Amino acid sequence: RQCPDSSAFIQPPPVVVTFPGPILSSFPQQAVVGSSGAPAFGGSLGLGGLYGA
C-alpha cells in the first residue's frame, strides 16, 4: 500500500509548482508552509480543491 501513498504524496508538490504566481500572490503563507514539504501535503490538497485542479 506504500505505492499508492507515494503517488498521492508526489502529486501535491507539482500542483503548487503549477501555480507559483497565483499561490504566492493569493496565499503567501501557504507558499512558505509548502516549502517545508510535510505541511504542503494538506495545504496543497486544500488549495487544489479551491482552484478546481
UniProtKB/TrEMBL annotation:
Assembly, in brief, is: The avian keratins (F-ker, S-ker, C-ker and B-ker) are a complex mixture of very similar polypeptides.
Q: Name one GO cellular component term.
A: intermediate filament
Coding gene? Krsc_5
User: Mind telling me what this protein is named?
Assistant: Keratin
Please name one Pfam family that this protein belongs to: Keratin
Q: Which InterPro entries match?
A: Keratin
Q: Which family does it belong to?
A: Belongs to the avian keratin family.
Q: Which UniProt keywords apply?
A: Acetylation, Keratin
Q: Which GO terms describe its molecular function?
A: structural constituent of cytoskeleton
Domain of life here?
Eukaryota
Q: Which residues form the signal peptide?
A: none
